[in-house]
Specification:
about 475 residues; alpha/beta; TIM Barrel; eight-stranded parallel β-barrel; three-stranded mixed β-sheet; 13 strands; about 40% helix; globular; binds ligand GBH
């Protein structure tokens, strides 16, 4: 029974050619007794949640439809010279119209959870004030389609697409944006929490603050000084904290609230006690203005000392808000950093990686699989977090469609297998990671890189919107079905 079901599912997913693919036979998989999972090497705990992640502006398209207001990414991507090839998210994966088919793909993969984000300017076209009912209806219908497919939705409220109307008033430079975000978050939670049980406030505060307001390579494309950037970071973590409180006030009881942050992952150079101790110190300091203040309700002494007169202005009450208790912590884990022990004041030094360090297709994406051990482990050690998720992990690859119509992304499979092996190592030592969301289901609009960098496990032909599951899709479906790698 199980065997024929698997075959049918895989035939649907990969077409008739599936049988001819040089992958491990399904007979061998079906022969493995299901409940031996817990004792198999590299098994994940029973009930571990496997998912994929996407973000509104990167997949939805339909930028001008059904009353959606402009976001800073519409403005930025339509500004000459800001994105690769002048690419925009106007159409992207056309997920706004094709979500039913894409959710079917998720179901075929065996996903039990899915992380998506809400476009703020679909709900409040001007950031605050009047509501666009069509936007609310879209997310209700989309979430219902997930639930019908047996997939639990995890909702991110801010994945970088700030309404342009708020940027016109200073964006995150303006403290009012933090309150506007909380109002929007509370409103969405009031409308969706009958269907969605997990909400994440922000995606990667570090990224949108530093790339958008310091480096100028993401929207809104500003290059501000370090005092301004420190204040913006403070407004952003404050927005997170206010949103946590607003969601708790407005959502159905039982709603769980967290965030999806991308901490700097400070792997010990080698796994000896002195370097591991340095990794703990480094993790707290390198993330002082983001995860550390959120978890501890204070900026570290070294962070404030280093900024001196440029330190952010804050009140004790704001710090309490920022540290509002969370039900879970989500982390996006990609590239590693490495640290070593040092006798100086900080107790650690960040190591500059050799230029030979292996990378994926994105120049920044160095391959450090042990990051998926150390990131959750350090967070658990430092702050005793009881529930964690890997809210993103994945890789870009120079995918090509082969003559036989398949995409053999062996490098992405290598990357995923090795990162997941280290996640299993963490979980097997008692680190409470409950689920993993692979970035991404589909190739999509990769921000400033436009469509030039592919992160999907499903290939998208952007000219036709045709979807082709890659080899990594089959790898992931296999991991999910066996709930492990062994
Ligand atoms: C995540 O960011 C995002 O949440 C997601 O939207 C994105 O698609 C995905 O990863 C893949 O990139 O251009 O050299 O200055 C990951 C963290 C931090 C990675 C900033 C890209 C820019 C490096 N990102 N980084 S560079």
């Amino acid at each position: 029974m199980l065997l024929s079901f698997s075959r049918r599912r895989f035939a649907q997913l990969f077409g008739a050619a599936a049988a001819a693919l040089p992958f491990r036979g399904f007979d061998a998989l079906a022969a493995a007794p299901g409940d031996a999972a817990a004792t198999r090497p590299l098994a994940f705990p029973k009930g571990f949640l496997w998912g994929s992640a996407t973000a509104s502006y990167q997949v939805e398209g339909a930028a001008k439809e059904d009353g959606r207001g402009h976001s800073i990414w519409d403005t930025f991507s339509h500004t000459q010279g800001k994105t690769h090839n002048g690419d925009t998210g106007d159409v992207a994966d056309d997920y706004y119209h094709r979500y039913r088919d894409d959710i079917r793909l998720m179901k075929d993969l065996g996903l039990t959870v899915c992380r998506f984000s809400v476009s703020w300017s679909r709900i409040f076209p001007n950031g605050t004030g009047s509501i666009n009912q069509q936007g609310v209806d879209f997310y209700k219908k989309m979430v219902d389609a997930m639930l019908e497919a047996g997939i639990q939705p995890y909702c991110t409220l801010y994945h970088w697409d700030l309404p342009q109307a708020l940027q016109d008033k200073g964006g995150w430079e303006n403290r009012d944006t933090a309150q506007a975000f909380a109002d929007y978050a509370g409103y969405v939670a009031s409308k969706l929490s009958d269907r969605v049980k997990h909400f994440m406030t922000t995606n990667e505060i570090r990224s949108f603050v530093e790339l958008g307001y310091r480096e100028g390579i993401h929207a809104p494309g500003l290059r501000l000084d370090r005092a301004k950037v420190a204040q913006i970071a403070h407004h952003a973590v404050l927005g997170h904290g206010l949103a946590v409180q607003a969601i708790r006030a407005k959502a159905a009881s039982g709603t769980r609230v967290g965030l999806a942050e991308n901490p700097t992952v400070t792997n010990p150079a080698i796994e000896t006690p002195e370097h591991i101790a340095a990794a703990h110190k480094a993790f707290r300091e390198e993330n002082a203005m983001y995860l550390s203040v959120i978890m501890e309700g204070r900026y570290t002494d070294l962070y404030l000392k280093q900024l001196g007169a440029d330190a952010p202005k804050f009140t004790p009450e704001e710090l309490r808000t920022i540290a509002s208790p969370l039900d879970f912590v989500g982390i996006n884990v990609y590239a590693p950093t490495y640290v070593r022990a040092d006798a100086g004041e900080r107790g650690y030094v960040m190591i500059t990686p050799p230029t030979s360090f292996p990378k994926m297709a994105s120049p920044w994406l160095t391959v450090g699989p042990e990051s998926l051990y150390w990131a959750p482990k350090l967070i658990h050690d430092l702050w005793k977090v009881k529930e964690m998720y890997i809210t993103e992990n994945g890789a870009s690859s120079d995918d090509v469609v082969a003559a036989d119509g398949h995409v053999y992304d062996t490098d992405r499979v290598m990357y995923l297998r090795n990162y997941l092996t280290h996640l299993q190592r963490a979980i097997s030592q008692g680190v409470p990671v409950k689920g993993y969301f692979l970035w991404s289901l589909l190739d999509n609009f990769e921000w400033a890189d436009g469509y030039s960098k592919r992160f999907g496990i499903v290939y998208v032909d952007f000219a036709t919107q045709k979807r082709i599951p890659k080899l990594s899709s089959q790898f992931y479906a296999d991991v999910i079905r066996r709930n492990g790698l062994g």
